[in-house]
Each structure stands twice: as C-alpha cells, then as structure tokens.
Write a structure and sequence with these properties.
By secondary structure, the chain is of the alpha/beta class. The two termini are 35 Å apart. Strand 12 and strand 13 form a beta hairpin. Strands 5-4-1-8-9-10-11-12-13 form a nine-stranded mixed beta sheet, sandwiched between helices. Strands 3-2-6-7 form a four-stranded mixed beta sheet. The chain is globular and about 50 Å long. It has eleven helices and 13 strands. Helices cover 37% and strands 24% of the residues. It has a domain of 143 residues: UDP-N-acetylmuramoyl-L-alanine:D-glutamate ligase, CATH 3.40.1190.30.
Length: 311
C-alpha cells in the first residue's frame, strides 16, 4: 500500500467552547488531540490510506494521551519521538471564519532524524510537511535532510505553507526567505489567502499563484474561504466553488481538504479532479460540529461530490 509521510507538529488544541472573535473573550476551552499532521493522519486512515507520522511530543500526560489516541486509530507511532519538553499547545477561537490562535511551543520542533531512514520511506508515495518544522531548529535541518532523501527516491513532495510570524524567533524578512527557500521542487502547495498575505504581502489571488510558481511550486491550490479554491498547474487556472451548503464550524476543514486531495492524487487524478475530492471532504467537516466524525470513504465522497454538483 502506498503511504503518505507527514512531517510536522502534533499539538494539543484548546478550542474555545463559545464562538468568539478574540481569545480574550473565551472563558472555557475543550481539549483536542490535533496539529494539522495529526488530523491529516487520522483523516487519511479513515479513507483507507496509510499515514506515517514523523513528529515529537513531550514527556507528559498529554503525549501519553495523544499516542494512545493514535494507537486507537491504528496509526503507527514508531517514528514519534518523546522528548524532555512540554507537549506543544495552541489556544484557538471557535470560529466560522479564520480562527485566532496562540501557540505555546515545546516539543514539536524537537523532531529527530530517524535511525533507519529506509524504513521511514518504505512504500511512501507522498511526503507532506508544514511550516512548523521549518520555523525552528533542530527540526529545520532534519527536514532538509529528509527532503533530499525523498527527492533522491522520486517521492512527491507537498507543502502546507501555514506560515505565521508567531512561530518564528527571528526577523520576519529572514523567516520569509527561509520559508520560500523550501518551495523549490515542490509538487503541490495549498496556501490560504491569509498564509499568502503573511508570506508575500497584500496581492490579488492570481498574483499569489504566480508567486508560488516563481519559487518553484509546480501546482498551487489557493483556498478562498466561502468562495472556494483557485487551482493552477502552471498552465491552466480554474476556480472551483466551495461545496459547503452551511457553515457550522470551519475547524479542521483544511486538514480534511488535504485528505480528500491525497485520495484523488493516489488514485491518479490530476490536481483539478483531486481538488474536487478535497472540497467534498472539507464540506463534510465544515457542515458537522462533531469533529470526531470520520471522513467518509472514497465512494461516499464521490457520491457526496455528485449530489452537491447537482444542487
């Protein structure tokens, strides 16, 4: 079975129980095992795709709970390091738009180079990474080495450029240069408008697409919120509408999108057809308040896609 190797942050999300625009107004929080890589791994497993996680957790009760939760989902945890730091946490507003977040970092960037890289890359078809490991050492150096190995093995590399200055401990212009330096040779990136503005400043969606291509990204999927996504393979540019009929909670929509996208790519679909599956998975997550619900299987996603296309 072809696998997706996911490198990045495993986090404890503390999400406000109430819909608030600012964390200062939040009074109660709910704990969730999260971080985009963890969410993506669980979603992929629901779709019958085997994920491999390379990450780091702290030596504390939260990490024990996280690993137990992943094991309950039958996700391999053998490449997750447990280090003498606190497990990283993020406080997040419950939101129908872009949530506000406050990171409290500890273990997430203490990712270790695996003792047996060949075992890590066995049957891997895609390598997925986020901006979190880029932002701090030693994770940045480990990631660079792993990307070199992946390229040598002709593994497809995809980037979630979830850039935020709050994650970095250096001047913003330097962090942006490092961020864009990791884009060279990337098969696909899926930025949001917010991600793009933080990296490149204020521009039109079409200009953001052009900029990502200019730094070496082959395919770009720019998410536009309620307006859908703008997709480019460097030759054609298409806008695909959102499939969400109602917005209950946007939490987890991006990770759901990635899982549907990978489902399509692993089946040999092009970036445009794969994006439609991503949209269907994201719509499922947006329309359901219960984030523990598994992403529908491929056939169900296709059925959901067909039904929504008829509306």
């Amino acid at each position: 079975m072809k696998k997706v190797l996911i490198i990045g942050e495993l986090l404890i999300d503390m999400i406000s129980r109430e819909y608030v625009s600012d964390l200062s107004d939040a009074e109660k929080f709910e704990r969730h095992f999260a971080g985009s890589p963890g969410n993506l791994a669980v979603n992929l497993k629901s779709l019958g795709i085997e994920p491999v996680l390379l990450a780091a957790l702290g030596n504390d009760p939260f990490s024990k709970g996280y690993i137990k939760w992943l094991n309950s989902k039958h996700i391999d945890t053998s490449f997750i390091s447990v280090v003498n730091k606190n497990t990283s946490m993020v406080f997040i507003t419950r939101s129908k738009g872009t949530p506000q977040f406050l990171p409290v970092r500890g273990a997430d960037y203490q990712i270790s180079f695996p003792q047996n890289p060949d075992e890590l890359f066995e049957n891997v078809s895609f390598l997925h990474f986020t901006s979190w490991p880029i932002s701090r050492e030693p994770a940045r150096t480990v990631l660079k080495k792993l990307l070199e190995i992946a390229r040598g093995k002709s593994i497809n590399i995809c980037l979630d450029p979830n850039y935020s200055p709050a994650l970095w401990v250096m001047q913003e212009n330097k962090s942006k240069n490092i961020m864009t330096g990791f884009m060279e040779g990337i098969l696909l990136a899926k930025p949001s408008l917010d991600d793009s503005e933080r990296i490149f400043g204020k521009h039109s969606p079409e200009k953001y697409i052009e900029l990502f291509h200019s730094f070496g990204v082959e395919n770009v999927i720019l998410t536009l919120g309620a307006e859908g996504v703008l997709v480019s393979d460097g030759k054609a540019l298409k806008t695909l509408p959102s499939l969400a009929e109602s917005v209950v909670d946007t939490t987890g929509a991006g990770d759901a999108f990635w899982s549907g996208l990978y489902c399509g790519l692993l089946k040999g679909f092009d970036v445009f057809e794969s994006t439609k599956l991503g949209n269907a998975a994201a719509a499922f997550r947006i329309e359901n308040a219960d984030k523990s619900l598994p992403i529908p299987k491929y056939k169900e996603l296709m059925s959901l896609l067909e039904k929504k296309a008829d509306l």
